[in-house]
Structures are given as structure tokens and as C-alpha cells.
Specification:
The complex is a heterodimer. By secondary structure, chain A is α/β, with parallel strands linked by helices. Chain A contains 13 helices and 13 strands. The structure holds zinc ion (ZN). Chain A: Catalytic subunit of the dimeric E1 enzyme, which activates NEDD8.
Chain lengths: ~425, ~500
């Protein structure tokens, strides 16, 4: 039987219209009827990454569509600014872990659904943990965490074991815009393949901040990047979430702006610049989360073909969307299997190469360590190896790596290493 | 620091709404808080829409629904409490649970019957800003849309239809002028028509004998104004026109450098097109000057049209542009030069605003004038049609379908569903109903088969994911209508969640 003890007659009257017969575009392998209902309602196990703006919506949709075994990971606690969209949270929940509150809420509201929260980082969990799920949905705002998740699921794929391939559905929003995509690790384009589609983060040159401020943002960056460490020393770190810290920066930035006749420094702008705040609203999250969950439902039931593979929405001027197949990148460091060709000047030093890697839109790496087959070129840690390899920073790359040679780039923030094939121009 | 932090830190309400205030600011928030919504039915789609409007703080909502919660409602609607809600009023249960989302919102359940209200109390609707109806019975929908259309002081109507993976929605409104469209176009810096103070400033600089550090910090605006003036002086007062001349002009900019790494001159070269692209009133703005409202302007006309008329008059006089705005993009410069330039732009923008104000034939609030002038390059006026107009015009419907076959076919299938009486119609019945909407003999697009098959599969399914998807899209549009910011849709928005696309017909 496709019902569990908590299901009541007609509970799934609407969804069952879909599960009891195929549509014109449904794959012929779809087995309409009790089998698919039973799989969805008693066997499917799904992981949700993030219990924030997208996560709250995702959990509610999954629960209503009949997924009964849902796990959720989130490392954050609830802030008052979450309440305009993260609808499973109330003012009394501020300060509590998102994953736990969200799980409690869903289990209370939707009978018979088990939501297992984990309050912590995705990096805390190993391959065995991720292998237990049929599907993973990611609703995160952190690029780093999404790269980690995508790379981890690509690495999990064992060609001998089809069960090791876990579809990853990834959603993201910004203001009235968003995107949802389906990643079949190693088969379709992964998160890393599309890294160059991200907007470049605004960066202000240090000399502008220090000497020639023109915009309110320049004054704010001056206060946070230069003045905070200068005045507080290396031990007191700036806490973006502490309103007193923001106020301190705001006061300093305002004074500087006044000195230079610059208008427009406000508390809200200060917070926005320092925290790199991205506008977020419930409605956009609802669209993207619905799209993610709809793909999960279609994958889990085969009741309709799933998205191949990218849906992009812009809601600022009418409703504009674009559905397309994002191509896998042959030189993707995660799923491409070959190295990235990097022609560089024969004069380039190791230090300059590191800067180049940090700036490149399709690489985006923080604090990379570099090594070749034979040499540790530069290692960021541990301190003794860093000290030992530091003299290489000023050497030319050419003196350490022959033309056509490979450099392996690693970083603590990434679960994979990047291979560069170096040539000289 | 001596400043009392409690004075500058935002209050709880501002903190709660921070992430949305960055999109529509306090003005949009006020509009939202003054809005009163009526939502007809407490279906899963209706509550999904409402959730996204209660969270950002809409002022008031009423759910009008006379039916009790059924077993299937309790299964697919997040704003019902499972079996414990079954048998209770669907409006009351949904309102109770939606209100938990935001203390600042007022909500009311109305268990009256819509047909009864239409018969005996049509003024009921005038208390609302906007009415949303989901899967409303076609006869009642027709009456409701006709009633609301007949008087343009009555609320806008958003009609939402869904069946399984397919759905669509339409906004019925008469006229929707937008000042803050958040256009991605930037206003002109008017380098080609430099105002006198800017021209004077650029001419006063002695580029040749300047301190080299200072030379590297002149703004590209000033460099271009100067270089253009020099060029015109040598070319009968004409800007560079041919490809060769433009190339020569750019080379001239490069040769002004005293050091090879002066980025301000590189910026000037990159922006040189501004010298030969004439600043005019953009064509979509001058098209607004033909608006019928301007022909019948009176003291009761909306302020927007008084402002638009003043803009038209402003553009008739030299330099035949929109009023200058004081917002200057960031550019390579030292603080002094940048701020100096900014002051020149501000002073001129202020003068032009005064000029603009003098052209107003009717007093308008200063804040509105500021906003209008600042956003003049992105103004829009949308004009809508009564709901159902397209489906009543077979030829127009056929050509709309031809223009966008996927969205068109899906819309046609949904319209057909509304016209069959059976709750489980066959594909044949639906196809016949669709055919009846088109001119005799019209061939249905091949996409129709996919759409109609999907509708026959799940004609009454209010799927949670489709409800949530529509809930988000409709709420986005409602927010745009209420705040009069950004640009809403002007016709049907159609969705297909089998292939995951949205389309407009
Ligand atoms: Zn890849």
C-alpha cells in the first residue's frame, strides 16, 4: 500500500492525479500507480542543504508533495532580518538554530513527515553520510559551500555503482532574480562548470580607499578594511553581525565622508557594504524553491521529464525566463577530467601567478597552494612549510616548471585540486 | 565614539524588512502597508500567493471563501493543520495560520458567498486595492471582472488559473504609470551638450602645464568635454562623425597622456562614444508625450500626467533633452576633482529642476517631482485590457498563438478547460472547446497536444509545487503593481512545469 499510518483518504488527491497516469511528455518507463507512490512516500530519502530563505520553502514543498524522510543541514541561527521571508521562524525563535526550528515546524504542520536536522557544516559530513540519500537540494547563498557540495557529489560517483550518482538540484536568488538547475554529477554540467556566470564581486582598489575616496562605499571600506585592524589590532576581529561594530564603522565612515564632502553614508549602506548584503524576498524564493522541489518530485517519481538543466528567471521587467542546457566544461577542474590550459608570460613570478588565479572568474580561489610533480612551489600552511616555500614567491614560474608542465593548485576552501597546464608566451 | 548607537541603529521593523527595503525602499514599503487585498478562495495557490505578501507586510487581506476544509485541502495546503482543520471554515483556518507570519498585518476571513455579494452588495469590492481570484468558476469570474472593469476606481483584478503542472495569470488594470521602473539604462551625462558651467570648467584647465599627478586625476568627463570642444573648434563645430574621425579623436585622447599609465585617459577613450552619440529624449519617453491623458489634462488628472506634460514642454526647448540628473557614476579621479564635478552636476540639475517645475500647470508634491526628474529616463505607462478580451477575439487569439506557440497553446488549453462543464474532460472535449475559440478551420499548433494531454491528466490538481511557483510569480507582480516600482506583465504569463518555462502571450 502506498499509504502510511498518518495518511488520510484523499490526502494526496491532487498529486495522485499526476501519479496515476502519464502525461503526453512522460517517459514510457513511468510506472503509474501504487509503486511510485510507495517509493515517494516510504522509501525516498532527500537531503536539503540550507534552512534559510530557500530552505524553508523547500522543506514545506517537499513535505506537502509526499516526501516523508527529509534531512536538513544548516549552520546558522535565526536573525530578525530573516523573518521577512523565512516563514517557518517567528520572533521568539531569533537566536535558535535554523535547521532545528525548521524541522520542528514542518513536523508539527505536516503529519507523518520526519525531518532530521543537523545544525552544523556540510563539511562535517563524509561520503557515507551523503551516500544514504536519493537526492540533494541545495538552497544556499554561499558560493563556496555550493562549490564544495557539487564537487563532493561529483567525487562520490563510482562508475561501478549507479546508486552513487546523486542528482543535485541547486537554487539561488537575488532580489527579483533567481535560478534553478539540475546537476547529474559527472554527466551534466556541474556547479564549477558555470562559475564564470557569477557576477564579479565589487572590489575597490586599496589606493582609492586610502587616498582618493569618491563614493560613500569607499569611506565604509576604509573604515572596515584599514581602520578597524589598525585601531583594534590583529586580535579583535570585526563581527559583521554585531550592530555595535557596524555602528563603529558607520561613525568613522561618516566622519571621513564629511571631511571629503562625500554624501550618502548611512547605517544601512554601511551594513550592506560590510556584510555584502544581497536583497532577498519571499516571492522570488518561493518561485525558485518550487522549481527545485518540482524537479525533485519529477526525478523521484519519473512522472515527467526533469529540467535539462538550467532555469533562469528575471522578474524586474515583466516576467522573463530562460530555460537552457548549460554545457559541461571539458576543462572543468571538478568534472572535466583534464587540466586547464594556462598560457602565462615567461616573466611571471609565482606571486603574480597566485594573484592571477585569485582574480580569474572561472577559478575563484582564496589562498591557493601550488605544487608540481617534483616541487612544492608555495604552500600556505603549515607555517614551517609556508616559510620554507616563501622564497619561491619572487621566482619566475619558468624557473620552477617546464613548458607543458602541470601545476596542482589546492585550497582549504575547496574539496578538489585544480590542474593547470602551463605554457609560456 | 560619542554618537549614541541606539540613535543610528535601525529599529526592529527596519531590521525585519531590511532585505526588501533594499529593493523598494521606504516608499514602496509604505505603499505595501497601505494596500488591502481580497483573495477569493483559500486554495493552496491562494495561500501560497498570500504568504509572499503577508511576509513583506501588506496592510490588510481578506480571504473570501464559504467552503469548509476538505480532506484534499488538508493534504495540499500548508496553511491548514492537517486533519484537525477538516470540516472547519477554509477561510478562517487559512487566515489564522497566515497571520502567524507577521504581527504587522491585518487579516480577515469572510465566509460569505461570492455570488451573493455580486448580486446584492457590489460595493463590497471598493474597500480593496487589489482582488486576486484563483480557479474561480468561469461565470462568476466573468461577472467579477466585468464589475471591476466598469469603474476605474475599483480594484485591479489578478486572475490565476492552474491545473497540474500548467498555469497562467493575468492582471486586469486600466492604467499603470511607473516612475521608479528601476531601469537599467543610465541617464545621459550630456557630454555632447555640456552645460555652460561644465564647459567653462573644462576650458579653464591648463592640461599642458599641470602637475603630473593632478593630470592623472582629471575626470574622463572633463577630458572628453575639453577634447570635444577642441575638436569642434577645428572641424566647423561638428563632432567626430566618420569611423576615421572617431579613430583620430580617440588617438588624440591617448596622445594627451603625459604618462603611459594614466587610467583616466583610458577611461575617456572607452567613453568617447558619448561625444558623438547625441543626447536626446529617448524614443520610448517621447512616445509617452502622445499619451491621450495629456490631451485632456485637468486638475483631476493624476499628478503623473501633469509631470509628464511638464517634461514634454521641457524637452521642446534647447537642449531638447530630459532634465539633467545629479547622479554621477564613479570614475578615476582624486576626491577634489570628483567632488568638484559632482557639485557642477548638482547645481545644474537643481537649475533644470526649477525650470521643469515652472512648466507644471498644476501643483505637485516636491518629493514626487524629485523622484520623477531623477527617474525620467525610465518612465513607463502601461495600459491594460479587460480580462478575457483576447479569448473573445478569435482572430487576435489565433495570431497571438502563432507568435508564441508554446505559451499560446498552453493558454488555449487552460481556456478550453474553463469552457467544458465536466470535471474530468477528455482530450477530445477539450480540443473541441479550444477549436471553438479560434476562427473556423484554424489548425491547432503542435504544442497544443502536450498541453491538452497534461490538462486531461490532472484537470483539478492544485499541486503544491505549482501553487508555490505561481504563488511567487503572482506575489512579485502584485508587489510591482502596489508599489508602482519595477515593471509588471502586460498580458498573460503562462507556466509549464513539465519543461520548466514561463512565457508571455
Ligand atoms: Zn564541472
Amino acid at each position: 500500500m502506498a499509504t502510511t499510518s498518518t495518511d488520510w483518504p484523499d490526502r494526496y488527491y491532487d498529486i495522485d492525479q499526476i501519479l496515476e497516469k502519464p502525461g503526453p511528455r512522460t517517459d514510457p518507463d513511468f510506472l503509474a500507480g501504487d509503486g511510485v507512490k510507495e517509493f515517494l512516500r516510504t522509501k525516498a530519502k532527500i537531503l536539503v542543504i540550507g534552512a534559510g530563505g530557500l530552505g524553508c520553502e523547500i522543506l514545506a514543498n517537499l513535505a506537502l508533495t509526499g516526501f516523508k524522510d527529509i534531512h536538513v543541514i544548516d549552520m546558522d541561527t535565526i536573525d530578525i532580518s530573516n523573518l521577512n521571508r523565512q516563514f517557518l521562524f517567528r520572533p521568539k525563535d531569533v537566536g535558535r538554530p535554523k535547521a532545528i526550528v525548521a524541522a520542528e515546524f514542518i513536523m508539527n504542520r505536516v503529519p507523518g513527515v520526519q525531518v532530521t536536522p543537523y545544525y552544523g557544516k556540510i563539511q562535517d559530513k563524509g561520503d557515507d553520510y551523503y551516500l544514504q540519500f536519493n537526492l540533494v537540494i541545495c538552497g544556499l547563498d554561499s558560493v563556496e559551500a555550493r562549490r564544495w557540495m557539487s564537487a563532493t557529489l561529483v567525487n562520490l560517483v563510482d562508475p561501478e555503482n549507479p546508486e552513487s550518482l546523486k542528482p543535485l538540484i541547486d537554487g539561488g536568488t537575488e532580489g527579483f532574480r533567481g535560478q534553478a538547475r539540475v546537476i547529474l554529477p559527472t554527466i551534466t554540467s556541474c556547479y564549477e562548470c558555470s562559475l564564470d556566470m557569477l557576477n564579479k564581486p565589487t572590489a575597490f582598489p586599496i589606493c582609492t580607499i586610502a587616498n582618493t575616496p569618491r563614493q560613500p562605499e569607499h569611506c565604509i571600506e576604509w573604515a572596515s578594511v584599514l581602520e578597524w585592524p589598525r585601531i583594534h589590532g590583529p586580535d579583535k576581529k570585526l563581527d559583521n553581525d554585531d550592530p555595535e561594530h557596524i555602528t563603529w564603522l558607520y561613525n568613522l565612515a561618516s566622519a571621513r565622508a564629511k571631511e571629503f564632502n562625500i554624501e550618502g553614508v548611512t547605517w544601512s549602506l554601511t551594513q550592506g557594504v560590510v556584510k555584502n548584503i544581497i536583497p532577498a524576498i519571499a516571492s522570488t524564493n518561493a518561485i525558485i524553491a518550487a522549481s527545485c522541489c518540482n524537479e525533485a518530485f519529477k526525478i523521484a517519481t519519473s512522472s515527467a521529464a526533469f529540467l535539462n538543466n538550467y532555469f533562469m528567471l528575471i522578474g524586474t521587467d515583466g516576467v522573463y525566463s530562460y530555460t537552457f542546457e548549460h554545457e559541461k566544461r571539458d576543462d572543468c577542474p571538478v568534472c572535466g577530467g583534464s587540466s586547464l590550459d594556462l598560457p602565462i608570460s615567461s616573466e611571471m613570478t609565482v606571486e603574480q601567478l597566485i594573484e592571477l588565479l585569485i582574480e580569474r572568474q572561472d577559478v575563484q580561489i582564496k589562498k591557493p597552494s601550488l605544487s608540481s610533480d617534483s616541487t612544492q612551489i608555495y604552500l600556505q600552511a603549515p607555517p614551517d612549510l609556508e616559510a620554507a616555500t616563501r622564497p619561491n614567491l619572487t621566482k619566475k614560474v619558468q624557473d620552477l616548471v617546464a613548458a607543458g608542465g602541470e601545476i596542482t593548485v589546492t585550497s582549504r576552501s575547496l574539496p578538489f585540486s585544480l590542474s593547470l597546464r602551463i605554457s609560456y608566451t | 565614539m560619542s554618537t549614541d548607537s541606539a540613535q543610528v541603529q535601525p529599529d526592529n521593523k527596519t531590521r525585519r524588512y531590511d532585505r526588501q527595503l533594499r529593493l523598494w525602499a521606504a516608499s514602496g514599503q509604505t505603499a505595501l502597508e497601505n494596500a488591502r487585498l481580497l483573495v477569493i478562495s483559500g486554495s493552496a495557490t491562494s495561500t501560497s500567493i498570500l504568504k509572499n505578501l503577508v511576509l513583506p507586510g501588506v496592510g490588510h487581506f481578506t480571504i473570501l471563501d464559504s467552503t469548509p476544509v476538505t480532506a484534499r485541502d488538508a493534504g495540499n495546503n500548508f496553511f491548514l493543520e492537517g486533519t484537525s482543520s477538516i470540516g472547519k471554515s477554509r477561510a478562517q483556518e487559512a487566515v489564522r495560520l497566515l497571520l502567524e507570519l507577521n504581527d504587522g498585518v491585518e487579516g480577515q476571513a469572510d465566509t460569505s458567498n461570492l455570488e451573493h455579494i455580486l448580486d446584492s452588495n457590489p460595493s463590497y469590492f471598493s474597500a480593496f486595492t487589489l482582488v486576486i481570484a484563483h480557479n474561480l468558476e468561469p461565470k462568476l469570474l466573468e461577472r467579477l471582472s466585468a464589475l471591476l472593469w466598469a469603474d476605474d476606481t475599483l480594484p485591479m483584478l489578478v486572475v490565476v488559473t492552474s491545473a497540474g503542472f500548467l498555469g497562467e495569470f493575468y492582471i486586469q488594470f486600466h492604467e499603470h504609470p511607473i516612475i521608479e521602473s528601476h531601469s537599467e539604462n543610465t541617464p545621459s551625462l550630456r557630454i555632447d551638450k555640456a552645460f555652460p558651467a561644465l564647459q567653462e570648467y573644462a576650458s579653464s584647465l591648463d592640461f599642458a602645464n599641470m602637475d603630473p599627478t593632478e593630470h592623472g586625476h582629471i575626470t574622463y568627463v572633463v577630458i572628453l568635454v575639453r577634447a570635444l570642444a577642441d575638436w569642434k573648434a577645428a572641424h566647423d563645430g561638428k563632432p567626430p562623425q566618420t569611423y576615421e574621425e572617431k579613430k583620430l579623436f580617440k588617438e588624440g585622447l591617448q596622445s594627451m597622456k603625459v604618462k603611459f599609465d594614466e587610467e583616466n585617459f583610458d577611461e575617456a577613450e572607452a567613453q568617447a562614444y558619448r561625444c558623438w552619440t547625441e543626447t536626446k529624449v529617448p524614443s520610448d519617453i517621447s512616445a509617452l508625450f502622445q499619451d491621450p491623458q495629456l490631451g485632456t489634462l485637468s486638475s483631476t488628472s493624476p499628478p503623473f500626467f501633469h509631470l509628464l506634460d511638464a517634461l514634454r514642454k521641457f524637452s521642446l526647448e534647447p537642449p531638447h533633452t530630459l532634465p539633467l540628473t545629479s547622479s554621477l557614476p564613479d570614475m578615476k579621479a582624486n576626491t577634489t576633482n570628483y567632488i568638484e564635478l559632482q557639485k557642477l552636476y548638482k547645481a545644474r540639475a537643481e537649475e533644470e529642476k526649477e525650470k521643469f517645475k515652472s512648466l507644471l500647470s498644476h501643483p505637485v508634491d516636491d518629493a514626487l517631482i524629485d523622484s520623477f526628474v531623477k527617474n525620467a529616463h525610465g518612465l513607463k505607462v502601461l495600459r491594460g485590457k479587460q480580462y478575457g478580451t483576447l479569448d473573445k477575439d478569435p482572430a487576435a487569439l489565433a495570431s497571438a498563438i502563432l507568435a508564441s506557440p508554446k505559451a499560446g497553446a498552453t493558454h488555449l488549453a487552460l481556456s478550453a478547460l474553463a469552457r467544458v462543464s465536466s470535471s474530468s474532460p477528455t482530450e477530445e472535449e477539450l480540443t473541441a472547446a479550444a477549436q471553438a475559440l479560434l476562427p473556423p478551420g484554424t489548425e491547432l499548433p503542435e504544442e497544443f497536444e502536450n498541453a491538452v494531454g497534461e490538462i486531461a491528466r490532472s484537470p483539478t490538481a492544485d499541486l503544491p509545487n505549482t501553487a508555490a511557483f505561481l504563488g511567487g510569480l503572482v506575489a512579485q507582480e502584485v508587489i510591482k503593481m502596489i508599489t508602482k516600482q519595477y515593471v509588471p506583465i502586460e498580458s498573460y504569463c503562462v507556466i509549464d512545469l513539465v519543461e520548466t518555462w514561463t512565457g508571455i502571450i
